Amino acid sequence: MAADVLGVGESRVRIDPTATDRLEDAITRGSIRSLAKEGIIWVRQKQGVSRGRTRVKHAKAKLRGRAGGSKEGAKFARVSRKEAWVARVRSLRRRLKVKKDRGEISNPVFWQIYRQIGVGQIKTVKRMEELVRATTGR
Q1: Which residues contact 107 (CB under 8 A, 6 or more apart)?
Q2: DSSP secondary-structure letter at 10?
């Protein structure tokens, strides 16, 4: 009943062995609650999973070089063409949305450039900025 009242599993409930006489009288949920408040019944802390091994692994990985000379595999073996494309398009669309929210470009211009980004006509931020300047006159 104590596990149910405290909302934990039975294995986590701990009872003070010196207060057995008080426990015999505890037959209602209210009495269990009062014993929990007094500290005769308590809940053992949940056991977690140690991150020690993971920390050591990450520390070792940091020591190993990840610069150009250490990279193995083809250019698109690490980041596929599609992943690179998605990242680029999302970045450009995010920047474009900021421009629209700031009022730097109008809604029709926004959608015109948005479509050009989607079909791959605009691939860089610099190109997008040039187009924005050309269409808005700023």
Answers
A1: 100
A2: G
The answer to whether 22 touches 40, Cβ cutoff 8 Å, is yes
d(CA 5, CA 29): 7
Domain boundaries, the chain: 2-43, 77-136
CATH class of 2-43: mainly alpha
How do the pLDDT tens digits run along the chain, 138 residues long?
888 988 999 999 998 888 888 888 888 889 888 888 888 899 999 889 999 999 999 999 888 877 778 888 888 998 999 999 999 999 999 999 999 999 999 999 999 999 999 999 999 999 999 999 998 886
| The model's pTM | 0.52
Angstrom distance (rounded) from CA 107 to CA 92: 16
CA 116 to chain centre: 31
